[in-house]
Amino acid sequence: MQRIISPSILAADFSNLKAACKMINRSEAEWIHIDVMDGVFVPNISFGFPVLEAITKYCMKLIDVHIMIVHPEKYVKRFAEAGAEMLTFHYEATENPDEVIDLIRHEGIKVGITINPDVPVAALKPYIDKVDMVLLMSVFAGYGGQKFREESYDRLKELKSMVDELNPACLIQVDGGVSINNAKKLFDHGANVLVAGSAEFNAPDPKEMIRKMLL
Ligand code: DX5
Ligand code: ZN
pTM of the entire structure? Predict the structure, then answer.
């Protein structure tokens, strides 16, 4: 089973993103997680295309973009052009998830779909065989540094059995409050990709923390 760490750049020092990219390049993290927030779908605003482009210029790892925006269909092409290799959108942000999935596929990049903690896991069922990844949010999207929601383990179990039944190749990602305290348990419950922001970038040695979370 694949075990991947995707460090979230949201917790990095924005005045030195090049250094953050270099750290990730040298680390055992296979992906880099980039959170785009629009201030409408979520209350917070993070950054947009110029920053994404700057990161893709320096980062050699898979560019994993999590869009917390309304009307994701409008921006799929621009995210692909800016370097997204995996593009994950929110189920709640669109009336037509199938359309967004098709648009992302059309760009020739990988597609992910995600839900916040208040959406039943069953909502993802119709899409599991159409996507490369499902992202289970273990906090409400919008801010880094929140506390991991313990009910996420039960949700993960439910999602894992759906994925096993419908599309075993589909990756399961968990995002929000992930740290050294829950990484092993999440991997053991069937997660393939763990996103970690503050747990990595606030660690005295982020590269070492990435290594430890994979143990
Ligand atoms: C939250 C974002 C996360 C965030 C995680 O909306 O989707 O990717 O960066 O941050 P931590 O790991 O600090 O909870
Ligand atoms: Zn995220």
Answer: 0.98
